[in-house]
Protein 1
Amino acid sequence: MNSVFLLLVVVLIAIAFVFILPPLLRKHADLDVDLDQRNVKIAQHRLAELKENLRSGGLSQIQYDEQLADLEQALSDDLDIQSKVGPVSTQSRWIVYVLIIATPILAGTLYWSLGNYQAVSHSAEMAFNTDAIKLAEISKMVNGLAEKLINNPDDAQGWLMLGRSYDVLEQHTQATTAFAHAYQLLGDQAEILLLYADALGYANDRNLVGIPSELIFKALALEPDNMKALWLGGMAKAQQGDAVTAIRLWKKLEALLPAGSEYQQEIQGLLAKLESEMPSVSAQSEPTTNKSSAAITVQVSLAPELIKYAAATDTVFVYAQALSGPKMPLAIVRKQVSDLPITVSLNDTMAMMPNMKLSNFTEVKLLARVSKSGNAMSQAGDLIGAVNKVDITDKNTHHIIINDSVK
């Protein structure tokens, strides 16, 4: 029999005996004397009360005599009854020894015939298999969700949940398909873009070059301070060999992370490694406007009639856009309404993607937009102003008046 099981049995029996045996082994005092003394004291106390009531007028002499007679009779009866009670026999203690011997024998016999002591030895194996059972249950639920989505392909949240579930199961190829459906239905939302990009990277041996990189920098354009986007963006740039941009993104991420946290320390280690591999990177990682190969100066103001529709804390995006093709900003600056009027310089260092920057175009469109949601994507109700065509070599200051709203 398993030694662990035997130890458990012994401990449990010992605990049981601790509760059962002491009352049986305890010596009994002479109850006659104790009870007689107690009854006499009670009678004395009651007699004192009667006398006090008689003295205070609470009882008449007749009432006093009647209650005194009752008290004497009750005391007499109590003393007579107690005198007939014999001493407790100690011969019944033999049952203690029977219990000590018979209980373990009886319990062991019953368990041997009805129980399964080997179950104790299987506990570790059962614990080991618990995770496997849970994983199988999750897989079953995920497969059920996938089947439901075949019949309901427009359930965007369902596709999103399916993608997350595949990520947990580390089935990254299936996750990319699910996130692609969610992206198609929900559009350019930072969370969707990053989940899709991350899954593509895992499915491609953690390589973020190409489509994953485009998705990541779309997310960064929407949410410039999104920590996951900064992390993945830095990783994508490092894989592309653009250490300067990787360092710039990770330095921004470092500043956003809690001081001294594990994640901040990890980022600091990566930055130190990049900077040690490229000694000149530190000097390049804080670019200035006069080093840009292309720059446009823009002055932005808000039309007086629209001031009442904008709060001081509303976000203002000032950006350049290609005249045709993708609408991703070629350079973008984020300010607040309280900063207006303002003059900014748009240049190549503000590009979201290396192949989508000002110097790659001869003419661009300039826009300034007030967004209450803080979303870089244009939404109905946003206030907007634009200069439709600007030559990239024009060094004059270009004026944008925000005087219209997005329909």
Protein 2
Amino acid sequence: MAEEQETPSYERARDELAEVVRDLEKGGLTLEESLALWERGEKLAKVCEQWLEGARARLVAAQAVEEDGEEKAGKDGETPF
């Protein structure tokens, strides 16, 4: 059960989510099996969304630093490096 507590990488969560979708689309599962897969898929989708939100935040932060550097260079004529 320790594996369930660990957050998988984005790629691992995405791949497992794709597998869950394939299994659900194939059909032939009991209602209980389908519900369990659906619940797992929901959890994996949330993990993927968290990774993507983190990546977006990092990009925004990097762009802000870049813009700050450009503003500083424009004010005093020197580059910050």
Protein 3
Amino acid sequence: MKTVQMTLDENLVSDVDRVAKKLGMTRSAFTRQALHAAIKQVKVSELERKHREGYRRKPVAPGEFRDWETEQVWVEP
């Protein structure tokens, strides 16, 4: 692992320390987990944007999936 230095406002550090302690984690472990989650969310958002853009450029045509409609199975809970 690499050690990095960050500048954070005191309220954020206090919040991080409080939550990390509550979760039984170190500040570094909590920060790593939070950064991983943030990066994952950025990737998901980018994939969703690309998905929307693809459908905007090439919308589903009427009846495009008609042949598959009979294959759908709806399970009652």
Protein 4
Amino acid sequence: MLTSKQRATLRAMAHNLQPIIHVGKAGVTENIIAQADEALTPHELIKGTVQQNSPVSAAQALAEICEKTGAQAVSSTGRKFVMFRPRPDDPGIRV
């Protein structure tokens, strides 16, 4: 569980990141989960976006993806969300 200071630090680090995960009209699919899982391993901190025609909100998408990938939710603002999962063997981001 991240503290508010840790979340603030990670949010600041994610500010300049481009979204890697794009949740579309199909919602959170197995493909989205797989993409997030693959992206979290090398990057640790990733940003995603929810398209306007998506049936889920950014908070719902973030919660579902985090639950299935073992990541931790950092923030959900508007249609963007940020998640964090440190590498188990060699964490590059220390919070």
